[in-house]
Amino acid sequence: MVAKDSVVLIHYTLTNTSGDVLDSSDEGEPLGYLHGHGNIISGLESELEGRKVGDKLVANVKATDGYGERDEALIQDVPRTAFPAEPVPEAGMQFQAQGPEGAQLVTVTGVTDENVTVDGNHPLAGQDLKFDVEIVEVRAASEEEIAHGHVHGPGGHDHG
Ligand code: ZN
């Protein structure tokens, strides 16, 4: 049964409220996560609590329990001179920027001669989400996995 410190492998398909598929586990490759450690969004984690192998469920997750509401303060104009000449910034580009809380994914939303507008909101912020989930495997985490806070091996993390 899925509980704190379980390693859980799931197949999932994520759609928005319009039914567009936004993300899914790779074909034949379930996603592994460590339950109770915030590896996945809280709204999905709470729906999986207490489930067992073979369970199929639909989790409807509100934006507040997903990637959060959009924060307009995370939209900023940055002088073009702050960007390298190549690649030329274009709307839709995504890149990692260093923020106060570490690396953060930002999306370019507009470009003028002087400025590049960047949006630091998660691309799925402000969206209600629907996950179709099948639980493929549940096992107890190793002490090392609990210490690291993530899954090792198939479906998880490889330290190489
Ligand atoms: Zn590790």
Which terms would index this structure?
2 domains, 160 residues, 4-stranded antiparallel β-sheet, Thrombin, subunit H, single chain, binds zinc ion, Chitinase A, domain 3, 5-stranded antiparallel β-sheet, mainly beta
So what's the overall shape?
Answer: elongated
- Counted by DSSP, the helix tally is 2
For the record, give the distance between the C-alpha atoms at the N and C termini, rounded to a whole number: 30 Å
**Rg calculated over all Cα atoms:** 18 Å
The CATH architecture name of the largest domain reads: Roll
Q: Give the % helix.
A: under 10%
Weakly predicted, low-confidence segments: none
Beta-strand proportion: 35-45%
Q: What can be said about the biggest beta sheet?
A: 5 strands, antiparallel
What do the pLDDT scores average to?
A: 92
CATH topology descriptor of the largest domain: Chitinase A, domain 3
Ligand kinds: zinc ion
The number of distinct β-strands equals: 9
User: Which CATH class of the largest domain?
Assistant: Alpha Beta
Domains, number: 2
Helix and strand succession? EEEHEEEEEEH
The structural class is mainly beta
